[in-house]
Specification:
Blueprint (H helix, E strand, L loop, with lengths): L5 H17 L7 H14 L8 H18 L9
Helix pairs in contact: 1-2, 1-3
């Protein structure tokens, strides 16, 4: 298996954090959060490995969204 770059590790780390955060949500809405996280990552699959600016921007944006959705007051996504 090839070694991952720092940005690749950061992206995988953010994805794992998102999936862990789903476990903290009510059981009946977990699938909404999981599907949303998967869709956001899937939407950006086309970003090139060398497009560092875009990747760093998406990581920052993803971390902010994760912080927002980890709030216990947010119980569902539509």
């Amino acid at each position: 298996m090839a070694r991952l770059s720092g940005l690749q590790r950061d992206v995988l780390s953010l994805y794992r954090q998102c999936l862990r955060a789903v476990k903290e949500k009510p059981a009946d809405t977990r699938s909404h959060f999981r599907d949303y996280a998967r869709a956001e990552f899937h939407k950006n699959l086309g970003v090139g490995k060398k497009d560092f600016g875009t990747i760093e921007y998406l990581l920052r944006r993803g971390r902010r969204q994760l912080e927002t959705y980890q709030d216990p007051g947010i119980r569902n996504l539509h």
